[in-house]
TrEMBL record:
GO terms of molecular function: protein kinase inhibitor activity
Protein name listed in UniProt: Inositol 1,4,5-trisphosphate receptor-interacting protein
Signal sequence region: 1-15
Region span, Disordered: 109-129
Location(s) in or outside the cell: Cell membrane; Nucleus outer membrane
Coiled coil spans: 38-79
Keywords: Cell membrane, Coiled coil, Glycoprotein, Membrane, Nucleus, Signal, Transmembrane, Transmembrane helix
GO BP term, example: extrinsic apoptotic signaling pathway via death domain receptors
Amino acid sequence: MAMGLFRVCLVVVTAIINHPLLFPRENATVPENEEEIIRKMQAHQEKLQLEQLRLEEEVARLAAEKEALEQVAEEGRQQNETRVAWDLWSTLCMILFLMIEVWRQDHQEGPSPECLGGEEDELPGLGGAPLQGLTLPNKATLGHFYERCIRGATADAARTREFLEGFVDDLLEALRSLCNRDTDMEVEDFIGVDSMYENWQVDRPLLCHLFVPFTPPEPYRFHPELWCSGRSVPLDRQGYGQIKVVCADGDTLSCICGKTKLGEDMLCLLHGRNSMAPPCGDMENLLCATDSLYLDTMQVMKWFQTALTRAWKGIAHKYEFDLAFGQLDSPGSLKIKFRSGKFMPFNLIPVIQCDDSDLYFVSHLPREPSEGTPASSTDWLLSFAVYERHFLRTTLKALPEGACHLSCLQIASFLLSKQSRLTGPSGLSSYHLKTALLHLLLLRQAADWKAGQLDARLHELLCFLEKSLLEKKLHHFFIGNRKVPEAMGLPEAVLRAEPLNLFRPFVLQRSLYRKTLDSFYEMLKNAPALISEYSLHVPSDQPTPKS
């Protein structure tokens, strides 16, 4: 009973306490607090959403940047792979091209079979007839022209050579008498070279070229260094060399007596008082460049001109003519002036023999038809003039009597000379004509050079020259040409050298090439009229006209 009453009382009390009317203020604020809380929660939620959006945008931006970097890296890697592949392919193509070029030079050197086969065939690759379809005079006209205008020059050349050789012998002997053998350069006998000594000179006035070798005083010697001896030289300096002045024992330092002051009562056992050489340190006395052991061309020019002037003063009273220097850029360009007003030019060229061969270093540089980079004064041009003369003499022995090879060269040289006077000099010279002839002599059979084939061989010579001009390539006859007979005795270094392209300036100088090509075709165009005119108007007692 009591427990039941307690439970009823507990229920009543609980009901009274939980009735809403008993606590009006507290219960009235609950809804307001909930709304504020909800509003704050909504605002916070919005902030969280905005932050989430910002983070998502940041993540997207970073992902885009990462993807871009990966793409750039991939493209760089692909480009590197492509570049490596391209470089490898370019290298392979270059090697293949060089192999083809070497093969072509070995198997297709010289004039084309079409040009060698006949005078009316076409040259391959020219896109037309040889010589642009221009025709040369016939055999009868050429023969008549040669007899009336050129043949007489041979007799005139012989008389000129005989006179000049006697005079030059006397002049060099006077020069030697003025030199001190212990301190001065020693001058040797002259050597006749070029067209006057190869019997194809036709241009007037007749001009003799004489090499004058010289050697240093003891105990010195000249040590030549060719461009093909392992030195790194520019392409335009190929064919040149330098000459080092050394002592006879191979050392550039002289005996100690040349560097030490000996007492008056002391004498060097190797050199007496009268045979002591100047010290090697004073290289200017040996015509070397400043602070150099290499021979200087300018020093040689000054020495040679001074020596010739002194020698002429010693013998001038014996002759009834005057001697003067000609071209300023050539140390041995001389001119004999007769009282009658006539003159006779000739060249005395100081040269240095290359070892024991017939190669000679020429002191002065040739004048080029265009401006170029000036060469060093220690660069010497290597001349093959003596070898060229020997080759022509040796070849003549195997050719038929009255062979027309020199006649072809004389006619071509005559046409070139007249054309140069009409339009001015070009990049083509008589040396290029001779080089082309030497190549043909090596390619043709001896029977092909009979006198009756003058017109065919002249046409072939001009075809060869045209082909060389169009290809801008005319190889030097001796350098790198292993087809030259061994009997010529060329140095092995010259035979092993790379072929030297005499037409290389045409590759670099387009204006010179265009002028030369135009002048060449103009020469061919004028040839028939020029030959006919000189054949008709030149009397038989005056073989060549005076210019």
